[in-house]
Amino acid sequence: MSASINILSGLGDKGPAAIVVEANGKRLLLDAGGALHPGEPTTWARGLDIDAVIISHDHIDHIGGVSELPATLPLYCTPLVAQALPKGRAWQSLPERSTCQVAGIPVTTGQAGHSLGGVWIHLGIEGGIFYSGDACFESRLFPFDAPPPARIALLDASYGTYDQPQQACVDAISEHLNRPLVFPVPESGRALEMALWLAEEADARGLSLAIDPVIRANLKTLLALPSTLRRSHADDNIKTLLTRPDASQPTLKLISDRDDTAAMWPGFHLLHTGYLTPSRCAELAAGDILWQRWNVHLRASHLVELADQIQAERVVPLFTHLSEPALGAWRTLLGARLATEKTLFLNTYALNTHTLDANALNNRSPA
Fold first, then answer.
1. Prior bond to 38 cis, omega within 30?
2. Do 13 and 107 lie in a common domain?
């Protein structure tokens, strides 16, 4: 038996996720990411020949390219993620935490600690192929399940070699709470845990708060799930927040990110907590917006810990820079396990690789 992995997109920079795994005569697409920046084409899908697609979670860089795929292509995702699919798109249910078969290949899923309905993916072939999607150990709401052993680890490295603990991020954001703030956030991810934290801070500081109705609805959805799909200690806080009325003139606003700009919110400072598009980088450089990360991805020590846990022989850091000096830092972190190849070939006895051209890596646009 043999298998191959072809990383169509997401290697060498922060870009759409799209990975093809071929085994037993079948080709599975792991995620179908859309462009992070408006107007950019989704090129990885051109001429693609696959048997099924599995979606890890509902953020645009993992699901936004579904519209580029044939409508008849079997698509697997969890029921909550299915709500973000194009209207009328057929799908088949992927378990939140269990094993199923997709095109005859054993697929195990578990909670990824990143977003509502999001899962990691493990393929039971050739010693195991593990794909984290986006993942985090530090969420106060979303659990992270320990995956089975895997020979190959395709890991979320969106933060590069950054390794600041979540509490340090929270403390840094706290320093800005003395001014009117708007937080634009992905509505199914960090929005939910930030809502709980902001409610606690507002009460402690005597501040007024308003939370986007979509975020409230997602908190209600999370609370209705089986208790094993959330951190159980948060239930009472979620219930309290759902009964809390929004302030009519809030000093703090948590909103679903709809490409908001500083000009759209006069009298407030926009504080972003995640990836910045080029236009937002320009706003930050001009002093028009604020930025402080809230951890929702694996930081460096957690990525290494995860690779150790699953006993990976080769580790591919995804969604991050792989040119120098970052590449040297990855070599230090992962040693001989580091893989920067676009294509990997596996069989029972050996693991061969085809290296992505170094110039192609070095010429990729910065995240």
1. no
2. yes
Of 47, 36, 93, 100, which is closest to residue 70 (Cα–Cα)? 47
Count of CB atoms within 10 A of residue 232's CB?
Answer: 9
Rounded average pLDDT over 132-151: 97
Q: Does residue 353 have a pLDDT over 70?
A: no
- Give Cα separations from 40 to 16, 30, 43, 131, 342 (angstroms): 11, 21, 9, 25, 22
Query: Based on the structure, what is the number of domains in the chain?
Result: 2
pLDDT digits (tens, 9 = 90+) for 216-229: 999 999 999 999 99
- Select from 297, 61, 38, 288 the least CA-distant residue to 182: 288
354 pLDDT higher than 70 = no
Question: CB-based burial of residue 222 (10 Å sphere; 0-12 exposed, 13-18 middle, 19+ buried)?
Answer: buried
Asked if the structure places residue 367 within a domain, the reply is no
Residue span of the structural domain in which 171 resides: 166-291
pTM above 0.85, yes or no: yes
